[in-house]
Amino acid sequence: MGLFLDIVTKVFFILSPFFSVSMFVLLSGHMDQRARHRGALRTSIASIAILVLCFVVYFFGNLIFRVLGITVSAFQVGAGTLLFLTSLQMVSGRRSDIALDPDEDFAVVPLAIPMIVGPGTIGTLLVLGMEISGTREKVVAGSAILLAVIMISLFLFLAMPIARILGQKGLQMMMKLTGLILTAIAAQIIFSGVNGFLRGTHP
Question: Alpha helix locations (H) across the chain?
């Protein structure tokens, strides 16, 4: 149960719920409720599909990295750095300044990928997969990741009420708070990689 809650919490914040809501409101502002819900559904399905593809590497990550000659420590540092850069953009607000055309179909690209499931997210998921060795634990972690995506989907379906309650400033504040939490997660991943390298504990 502890592993399940830990993975759900981490992945939920890594998927940037308030940034996702802010971008969804911006892109779907001209739509009626029915079209907005269709967009939220397509984004959710696309996000789940992308993460399902990641599960192949998630479950067989250690074998693949051994074949490629990549150590867990090196990948931790790389994935942590990507996540750290993403979190810095959220804290500074630059990530919300991306030029977008709301008249184009945004559900899959760019909202599902790379905004919700970006390189930092994928790299962090692979790190989590490599840190868990048992098959049962990996199934539990996979279920936790699926729940986190479902929670993000609910945020998208409730985007307009959330935006009305929090307001633009409230969304910006929550997005920056999420960014701060992500910097801590990213720093921990990087420190784990450096520590593993210094100890020589490579697969």
Answer: 2-14, 17-28, 33-68, 72-92, 119-131, 135-157, 159-199
